[in-house]
Amino acid sequence: MWYSSNRNRTSRRKKGSQSNCRCSRSYALVYLVSIKRHCSPVATWANTAMAAIVREAAPNQIYAWGSNASGLLGIGDCEDKPTPERVKLSNTTNIKEIDSGGCSTIIVDTDDNVYVAGENIKGLLGLDSTDWKLKVCTFTKIPTLLQRKVIKVSCGWWHALAVADNGASLFGWGWNKYGQLGINAKSNDGIFEGGRLSYNCPKETVILPTEIVCADANEQIYVDVSCGWKHSLLLLSNGIVYSSGSNIHGQLGMDNTTTKCLHSFHKVPTHRTASNDCKLQIINICCGWQHSSALGKIVGHSSSSSTLVLTWGSNKFFQLGRKSKDSVQQALSDYNPGVVKALNDIEICSIRSGWSHMIALCANGFVYSWGRANFGQCGRVDNNSVQSLCHGKGTSPVAKIVSLSSVKCIACGSEHSAAVDVNGALFTWGWNEHGNLGQPGMPLSRIPIPVVAMEKTVHGVECGGAITIAITG
Question: What is the pTM of this model?
Fold first, then answer.
């Protein structure tokens, strides 16, 4: 994920700043679904070899670098790292799932251990502590989630969600002031501690992973989750998307003039974008800072592409990749899920979002980007001269990143991005104040550049607020 601490947002232009920036199916199949969210089928690795990594390959190795004031790199200290540093986990073999957010990183291994590192703001670490200043600088197990067969995790600003029990259960913890956990704690005087209340701490905070019930789930399996700043998305196995939390910019897919926030998950009307003779099956969801997106598979299609990318919420920096339906000008926001038409004839297999920019991975290994580009987040040399529809320079339309090809997986931080090609080479671009590009001494890069300090072959990549994590082995 992409999120970054607010302290970093205000201090990132200060030189030397150390502030921290963000299934009824079988177990193996569920894992592959998670991996394929990020990977292109252009490589055999993305389809079958990744499963082999889980089953029988040598142990994975994790390398992390970038902003580390909160300790979320998990390397034993709280100092920024401009080049890759080896992350050590105890008693682990292979990595099943990894995600990073504003002040925390979560790793799940194939032995069903769930690890966390970072700062415990609002109970973000899920370790049953009300010490908001607690920093855990090495990866520590979350006892509540041990052996719960967690298949998907998402770290937001100060909250996190996890899909457990092979998709049968959903857990959340951390900040819940706006209902972003889907737990209606607004009327309580205390905070949730794994389902019980404590009255000696601020309300609307959950300090232990607590089970969340989506009223409409019925017999459906939880497939995917995504956490934004103050909102969250949930995807069920029937392809229906649900949202909860702040709706100030319409990021829940509801009229923001009448609904400012929700404290439980409600259905997002993505079906409205499908034609009468076609059904849209959502397969990938993604939260930005104050916008949302979804990748859908068209069932019964007759076009050259079988996918649609939908976006809704804030459009201040053209992160929706489209104009409002009702105006020839770019709208500041749009609560109606709408199609990114520039991608209609392109087969998309994964979408990722930063604060206010997005990237999409095509089945043929090419990458498209759009949205805010003031730090080169969109990876194109024309970004410096692009004029947006109503906000001047610094934003970018939907276009191909011409210097990338044969890409198999992608990731976004708050204001940087990363990609891995079929040869295992890692590329980064965008903002680099905390060394998150792995390029020491470089303030930013407007085009993808190889991380030469990453000497090992990279299988996967994840980004947090201003950090990058590479998986090798």
Answer: 0.85
